[in-house]
């Protein structure tokens, strides 16, 4: 029960933090989520946001130095994202 309580209280903070970051920066990567927003599982947060009606595009990129592939997530509808924040404040 204690773990479930933590999960329920953390999820809204993480959802809001990711949306706020994306509104401010325009997009987010897993690395940015871990370092700047303190979110360890960005893909999980992105899936939860999509289930709540936030439209998010995924863009595959390659790092110029390492050629490692990664995903950059962009908000498709900034107005819906702002509405989500307003309804969860």
Helix/sheet category = alpha+beta
- Main sheet specs: 3 strands, antiparallel
Poorly predicted ranges (pLDDT <50, ≥5 residues)? 1-10
Assign the CATH architecture: Orthogonal Bundle
End-to-end Cα distance, whole Å, is 25 Å
CATH topology: Arc Repressor Mutant, subunit A
DSSP strand tally: 3
Overall pLDDT confidence = 89
* Overall tally of structural domains: 1
* SSE succession: HEHHEEH
CATH superfamily annotation: Winged helix-like DNA-binding domain superfamily/Winged helix DNA-binding domain
Helical coverage, percent range: 55-70%
CATH hierarchy, class:
Mainly Alpha
Radius of gyration: 14 Å
Oligomer: single chain
Label the overall shape. Answer: globular
Please explain how this structure is put together.
With 89 residues, the chain is of the alpha+beta class. The two termini are 25 Å apart. The protein is built from four helices and three strands; from the N terminus they run αβααββα.
Please write out the topology:
Elements: H1 2-25, E1 27-29, H2 30-37, H3 42-51, E2 56-62, E3 69-75, H4 78-87
Antiparallel strand pairs: 1-3, 2-3
